[in-house]
């Protein structure tokens, strides 16, 4: 599975979980947003939690960089559910 397929899988999984909401939301910072992502339900989906964690960790590094000599983006492909 390539990186774009993983992102697509994440979006589809979030929609299935009804975690992505559209409307007019007032955020904690008092700003408004037309989109809200409710991560509270993700704890009930361990595979999705692993996928989100892997994407978050790997996007913390520039594409192609490594952590401890291991290419994070290649490792992420093996972590996807």
* Name of the level-1 CATH class: Alpha Beta
Order of helices and strands: HEEHEEH
| Total tally of structural domains | 1
Mean pLDDT across every amino acid position? 77
Give me the Rg, rounded: 15 Å
CATH topology: Rossmann fold
Across the major sheet, the strand order is 1-2
Distance between the termini: 10 Å
Total number of beta strands:
4
Detailed description of the structure:
- This protein is an alpha+beta fold and 81 residues long.
- Helices cover 43% and strands 21% of the residues.
- A two-stranded antiparallel ribbon has the order 1-2.
- The radius of gyration is 15 Å and the shape is globular.
- The protein starts with a helix and ends with a helix.
- The model has no long low-confidence stretch (mean pLDDT 77).
Offer a few descriptive terms:
globular; two-stranded antiparallel ribbon; 81 residues; 21% strand; alpha+beta; 4 strands; Rossmann fold
């Amino acid at each position: 599975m390539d990186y774009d397929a993983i992102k697509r899988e994440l979006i589809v999984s979030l929609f299935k979980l009804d975690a992505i909401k559209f409307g007019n939301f007032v955020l904690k910072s008092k700003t408004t947003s037309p989109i809200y992502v409710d991560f509270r339900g993700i704890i009930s989906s361990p595979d999705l939690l692993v996928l989100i964690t892997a994407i978050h960790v790997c996007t913390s590094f520039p594409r192609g960089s490594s952590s401890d000599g291991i290419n994070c983006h290649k490792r992420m492909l093996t972590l996807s559910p």
